[in-house]
Design a protein that fits this description.
Elements lengths: L1 H23 L8 E5 L6 H17 L3 E5 L6 H9 L6 E6 H10 L11 E10 L1 E6 L7 H10 L5 E4 L5 H12 L5 E4 L3 H9 L5 E5 L4 H5 L3 E6 L26 E7 L4 H15 L2 H9 L2 E3 L4 H21 L6
Parallel strand pairs: 1-2, 1-3, 6-7, 6-8
Antiparallel strand pairs: 3-10, 4-10, 4-11, 5-8, 5-9
Helix pairs in contact: 2-9, 4-11
């Protein structure tokens, strides 16, 4: 009897072992991949990633579905990402704000940027344009500085709200120039550019791509860009480095997954994203949006997140910004 039960028990263990092996070998991905995006549809990051997913879903054999969760300095989307199942079927695009800035300006965050996420890769830098309204009495950054210094606090600067990256840029340049700009909050880039064209605001910083047609038709002025070199579409517009503002905050987007996601899945996602972003045709697509690709390894992105976290911490302390 003992030998009989022993044989049955051994067979049961073998079945369980084989069952676990089959489960462990289940291919990834095995179902649609959801992207959590803390933005509205049609924004620059949405356009970029949807284009990338056209190629990625062919290679990975599963569709990519974008779930939009805008608002709250991207905290709503970041929290959902942190709480998602760490199985690689939820990926998250987050910008510099939730990963490096929010920890310094909010006393209580519903997530920890270093504990709750695993970096996959940085994606790209947004080439910011420093725009002025068409009737602005300045046609260069030098003239804008002179105007701002002569009349502190009288020029309006459109931002995405207090304590956002765009608002810190306003404070940063005012501090550098020993003057100030009045911050006017808006709920997104399109409303800001609409207000700029209407002459309701004087200056703003936004992704260059949202204002290309406005500048070409004379409805707005482009005084400088944050690119590493002058843009082919605006060869006469200097870079921030050329006008002495090379250290201005530079917005970026990256890809993360929930903490606990297996390293093998992180590696697979990184490989596919980097492959797309380094394809010459996709790089041309990024150029058309005035966007600079910046993909790399998960380790490089982790180091970038830490560095940016430290930079924003220093800025918040210097400008005496009190966490909410």
């Amino acid at each position: 009897m003992g030998m009989k039960y022993s044989a049955i028990w051994s067979g049961l263990l073998l079945c369980l072992s084989l069952s676990g092996l089959v489960g462990a070998q289940q291919p990834y991905p095995s179902k649609p991949i959801h992207l959590i995006l803390p933005q509205t549809a049609g924004t620059g990051v949405d356009i970029v990633l949807r284009k990338a997913f056209e190629t990625m879903q062919q290679r990975m054999g599963q569709p990519f579905i974008v779930d939009y969760h805008p608002g709250s300095n991207q905290m709503a989307g970041a929290e959902l990402c942190a709480r998602a199942a760490p199985d690689g079927h939820t990926i998250c695009a987050l910008s510099v704000d939730p990963l490096a800035l929010n920890p310094h300006i909010f006393a209580k965050l519903p997530y920890d940027p270093f504990r709750d996420f695993k970096p996959v890769t940085s994606l790209y830098y947004i080439v910011s344009g420093w725009f002025g309204k068409a009737t602005l009495a300045a046609n260069s950054m030098g003239e804008l500085r002179a105007l701002a210094v002569a009349k502190p606090g009288t020029l309006n600067w459109a931002t995405l709200g207090p304590k956002t990256n765009t608002d810190l840029t306003r404070i940063w340049v005012g501090d550098l120039w020993k003057t100030s700009f009045a911050g006017i909050p808006y709920k997104g880039g399109p409303p800001i550019m609409t207000a700029l064209v209407a002459g309701e605001i004087d200056v703003t910083t936004q992704g260059v791509y949202v204002g290309i047609d406005l500048v070409k038709t004379g409805k707005a002025k482009l005084l400088a860009v944050s690119a590493s070199k002058r843009l082919a579409i605006f060869p006469n517009v200097p870079t921030l480095k050329e006008v002495g503002l090379g250290d201005a905050p530079n917005p970026w987007w990256g890809m993360v997954v929930p903490g606990g996601t297996p390293d093998a899945i992180v590696t697979r996602l990184n490989t596919e994203i980097v492959r797309v972003f380094r394809d010459p045709k996709f790089m041309e697509f990024l150029d058309s949006l005035a966007t600079e690709g910046n993909v790399g390894t998960p380790q490089e992105f982790a180091a970038m997140m830490k560095s940016e976290y430290q930079v924003f911490g220093q800025m918040v302390k210097r400008f005496n910004i009190t966490p909410e």
